[in-house]
Design brief:
The protein is of the alpha/beta class. It is built from 10 helices and 10 strands. Strand 4, helix 4 and strand 5 form a beta-alpha-beta unit. The structure holds iron/sulfur cluster (SF4).
Amino acid sequence: MYENCRLCPNFCEVDRHKTKGACGQTDRVRIAWSGLHKGEEPPVSGEYGSGMIFFTGCPLGCRFCQNYQISSPRDDAYGIEVTTDELSEIMLALQDFKAASLNLVTGTHFIPSIAASLDIAKKKGFCLPVVWNSSGYESQEGLQIIDPYIDVYLVDVKTYDRNVAAKFCGRARYCDYMDSVMDFIVSRHPHTDLDRMKGTLVRHLVFPGELDATKQFLVRFAQKYRKSCYLSLMVQFIPPRGDVYFPPVSDEEYDELIDMLDILGIDDGFVQDRSDDDILWIPDFRKDVPFPSSFAAALPYFLELKRKKLSL
Ligand code: SF4
């Protein structure tokens, strides 16, 4: 798949053994952080946290990405290079670190290597439920490869509105692919039971000033996916660099959305608590623990690997 890369709907068709695509990455896997994180939805986090692996690079170009330090297609995107063996060792170390799940964050552009690492880890006793935590910007080819490894999809459906996609996601075409991605996932995972770590949790972040787009999404979700998937509705949009101000979702807008969930019969899932508004959600990947320490703990094996690689 790396030789003529079509892992996401950018369909660059470049040879990533030799060059980078629009995601800014070659075939050499780079990761920015690994450790436990308790800020994921409760069943995914469990008692000690979900075992996160944040991959460097991203096929989308969201203008206000909270992970901009690691997601940029530019050469300065933060991350260390790891082999498939090292990646499998990280997976096993997260299991030993009491992670409730393995949480693969934005791994779309490294799908073949992640599948290879999971194969290696499983042969050595890896048995955590695997969570695919992504923007949903995947091709059918990419999904076919990774799906057999996935227990829970934690997938963004950011919008079905092309103008909103162009403004916030960097690509208007994002929404053209969301139905086919969701239809694929639901065809393979028609039932969700997060207590058993099976199925799909659709995440939707309310974009500021775009309440109508969120309402359009909620109607579509209720019609097509309500019986198969849980919903996680998030309202904490924060531009990371502070160079632009967006008014937060107002109390009236928040109440309107909660009422709408009720009317549409969407009752399986999570709604972000507005009392979380003052938590500093934007990570700083230059630190050993990029998140508030009450939420996260770095994997010692990852820190060891990082120090070794950075000192070479
Ligand atoms: S993963 Fe997507 S953006 Fe990256 S090279 Fe492949 S098709 Fe292009």
